[in-house]
Amino acid sequence: GDASDLTPYLLPGVVLSTFQFVAAAGLALAKRTATLAALASLAAALEIGLDLALVPHYGLPAAAVSGSLAQVFLLTSAWYASRATLPLRLDPTAARDAWRWLRAAR
After folding, report:
1. What are the pLDDT digits (tens) for 36-58?
2. What is the spatial distance between Cα 76 and Cα 91, in angstroms, rounded to a whole number?
3. pTM of the predicted structure, to 2 decimals
4. How far apart are CA 12 and CA 3, in angstroms?
5. CB atoms near residue 33 (< 10 Å)
């Protein structure tokens, strides 16, 4: 296959990474950038660990999935750490629509 075969595995991580700055806004407002750096470092370590464990068995798709999972971790942990300063709520309807859009992209 070619690189386009990896798109379904890469797309969730790319989409989630675009929302990361919103999720981390509370950390920036509270001048807790060291926390954000620590979370990004943990996300990188998670991705490397997943790559080392999964890529030898499943190849490039596993690398793409591990990147997406690391973005899920970074987005949710940044949101959780930011909520004391800037509480953001997710509209379940919007989340459902985004999920449908992602599934249709496959």
Report:
1. 999 999 999 999 999 999 999 99
2. 15
3. 0.77
4. 16
5. 11
Q: Could you count the other beta carbons within 10 Å of the beta carbon of residue 69?
A: 18
Which tokens in the block code for residue 28? 């920036």
Six token digits for residue 44: 């990188």
Tokens 């987005």 sit on residue: 75
Q: Tell me the C-alpha distance between 51 and 57, whole Å.
A: 10
Q: Which amino acid is at 79?
A: W
CA 100, 101, 105, 106: dihedral to nearest 10 degrees? -20
Within 8 A by CB and 6+ apart from 7, the residues are: 105
Other C-beta atoms lying within 10 Å of the C-beta of residue 93: 8
Rounded Cα distance between 34 and 70, Å, is 18
CA distance 82 to 33: 11
Single-letter residue type at 64: A
